[in-house]
């Protein structure tokens, strides 16, 4: 999150360097709200696209604006190679369409709502991606899960346990704390999406948000689209 409340900074509207921004974090951490904030702030910025996910969940289920598919439809598209990335979690199937590759090849920066366990496969396919892990205090996470009313007590307990399971942050991840006001973490995400110094640079992040990165200088400007046409694997993961 941002170190202190401040007015939204003017955005640059020139062309952005193409890359994939891969947002991930436990269910209830506020990824949908962060993406909505960033989408509104970057609506007039050319060269930025927020990818919709294909999910085997009803369109009116609440949460993100996704493309709803029946399980048979999802499996047919997966087997036809129409997903750049796909995974399963909590009994649902999630996919990012193959249009992702086209957008990146056209020089567009693409922001996706990804899976923590899918990250190794995503990095193998898009070696230049910027991984952003959203974290939230346990008490805040429980409050948000209960407030949205989508899970029963058993589901909430499982999600809280999974969020607390130790998962080592991989090299180059940006850790974004969303325990406080949405505007703070939202503006930090906008800073990471828009052009500027390498967001893996500690000085850049210190000025932009009260978060941390796993030490690295991996460039986020290397070509993020696949260098081969190898099909995506089918791992299980968490959203």
Strand proportion, as a percent range, falls in 15-25%
Roughly how many Å apart are the termini?
A: 21 Å
Rg of Cα set:
17 Å
> What is the CATH homologous superfamily assignment of the domain at 20-51 and 108-213?
P-loop containing nucleotide triphosphate hydrolases
Provide the CATH topology of the domain at 20-51 and 108-213: Rossmann fold
Name given to the CATH architecture of the domain at 20-51 and 108-213: 3-Layer(aba) Sandwich
Major beta-sheet overview: 6 strands, mixed
Give the strand order, joined by hyphens, for the main sheet.
Answer: 2-7-1-8-9-10
Shape: globular
Query: What's the helix count?
Result: 8
Give the helix level as a range of percent. 25-40%
Backbone structural class: alpha/beta
- Taking all residues together, what is the mean pLDDT? 74
Q: How many β strands by DSSP?
A: 10
Q: How does this model look, in words?
A:
The chain has eight helices and ten strands. It has 239 residues and is an alpha/beta fold. It has a domain at 20-51 and 108-213: P-loop containing nucleotide triphosphate hydrolases (Rossmann fold, 3-Layer(aba) Sandwich), CATH 3.40.50.300. The protein has a six-stranded mixed beta sheet, with helices on both faces. Helix 1 crosses helix 7 (182-193) and helix 5 (138-148) packs antiparallel against helix 6. The longest helix is centred in the middle third of the chain and has 12 residues, at 153-164. The chain is globular.
């Amino acid at each position: 999150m941002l170190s202190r409340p401040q007015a939204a900074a003017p955005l640059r509207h020139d062309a952005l360097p193409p890359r994939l921004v891969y947002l991930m974090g436990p269910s209830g951490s506020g990824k949908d709200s962060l993406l909505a904030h960033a989408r509104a702030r970057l609506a007039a910025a050319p060269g930025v696209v927020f990818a919709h996910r294909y999910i085997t969940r009803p369109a009116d289920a609440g949460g993100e604006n996704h493309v709803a598919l029946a399980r048979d439809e999802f499996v047919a598209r997966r087997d036809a190679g129409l997903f750049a990335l796909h995974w399963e979690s909590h009994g649902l199937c999630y996919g990012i369409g193959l249009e992702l590759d086209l957008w990146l090849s056209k020089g567009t920066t693409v922001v996706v709502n990804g899976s923590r366990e899918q990250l190794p496969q995503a990095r193998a396919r898009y070696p230049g991606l910027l991984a952003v892990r959203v974290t939230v205090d346990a008490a805040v996470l429980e409050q948000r899960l209960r407030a949205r009313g989508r899970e029963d007590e058993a589901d909430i307990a499982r999600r809280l346990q999974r969020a607390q399971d130790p998962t080592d942050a991989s090299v180059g991840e940006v850790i974004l704390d969303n325990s406080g006001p949405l505007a703070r973490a939202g503006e930090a995400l906008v800073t990471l999406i828009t052009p500027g110094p390498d967001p893996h640079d500690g000085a850049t992040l210190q000025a932009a948000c009260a978060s941390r990165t796993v030490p690295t200088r991996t460039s986020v400007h290397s070509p993020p689209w696949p260098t081969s046409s190898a099909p995506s694997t089918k791992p299980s993961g968490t959203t």
